[in-house]
Amino acid sequence: MELGPYILLASIEGSVTAAVLALTAVGLSLVFGVMRVVNIAHGEFFMLGAVIAWFVAQALGAHPAVGFAAALIVAPLVVGAIAVAADVTILKRIDYDPERTIVATIGLLYIIQQLTLMGYGPDARPVEAPFNSRLAIPWWEWKDGALQMYWPWGLATTSYKLAVIGAAALVLLGVWAFMTHTRAGLLMRATQQDREMALAFGIPVERVYALVFGIGAGLAALAAVLIVPISQAHYLMGADPLLLSFIVVIIGGLGSLPGTVVAAILIGLSDGIVSVFFSPTLAKILATLLVALVLVFRPGGLFGTRQA
């Protein structure tokens, strides 16, 4: 078989990674853009979403679609509420100081991780997908003077993976609409532009910060719920999403939501293709090298403000 079908299959796998990564990284970018907080615990909010999804699915014990649908609602809300509580009880009390918030979120990371280990255990556990039909993928080639379609053996994906891509795209469009067409989004953008001016105009900045921190964590949890039927819920699963999210946010531009989405697509597709043809380790190395190049030649990121 020629190389093209394999590249197509790798691109589909990379698109799934890109979709989940975009949701996770947009949450991280939103928190940094509005609050100027580097949330080291963001990966643990992702992990909590997957673990809560497993608990919800087990508790309902009904058809997989029922448990999964409930998890899509419950996990982001619960994780968002935990994030709001962390903001009010920890970050607010240290006045969102950049250095102290890094230390505080590192502490939050270990607290969440160890509490999850105590309550959930060390085992990786799957959540059954609501649907998972196998779909053959066609390919086209030029033969006998005409373009002909055929079905390469083994070239297939699943309906659930395609649904993950579509669901992530819809959520990202929803985030964009929320930020550009709602009063809450307007307040967030005003706070991002100038915190002191926002305070002068009576905007409740601390409430905006709590809302942003909750939304960022909720997006990470939602991404985890989408991916957990493909992977598994584990108490240490937050490390890779955190690393890749930081890579995406740096490449796209700190605080730039469009840049974050574009960078997530770039990293996700490259990760999928390189992992299939070479190794996942090489994919991470190339992503890290790309970050280094961006920091050297365009410190503000591809869509960020160019540094003077």
UniProtKB/TrEMBL annotation:
Give the record's membrane topology: Multi-pass membrane protein
Q: Where are the transmembrane segments?
A: 6-33, 45-62, 68-90, 102-121, 159-179, 208-230, 242-269, 276-297
> Where does the secretion signal sit in this chain?
none
Any one of the GO CC terms: plasma membrane
Q: Which cell locations does it reside in?
A: Cell membrane
Q: Which CDD domains match?
A: TM_PBP1_LivH_like
Chain coiled-coil ranges: none
Sorted keywords for this record are: Amino-acid transport, Cell membrane, Membrane, Transmembrane, Transmembrane helix, Transport
Which InterPro entries does this chain map to?
ABC_transp_permease (IPR001851), BCAA_transport_permease (IPR052157)
GO BP annotation list:
amino acid transport
GO MF terms here are:
transmembrane transporter activity
- What family does the Swiss-Prot or TrEMBL record give for this protein? Belongs to the binding-protein-dependent transport system permease family. LivHM subfamily.
Q: Which PANTHER family match?
A: ABC TRANSPORTER PERMEASE PROTEIN, BRANCHED-CHAIN AMINO ACID TRANSPORT SYSTEM PERMEASE PROTEIN LIVH
What is the protein name stated in its UniProt record?
Branched-chain amino acid ABC transporter permease
State the organism of origin.
Roseovarius spongiae
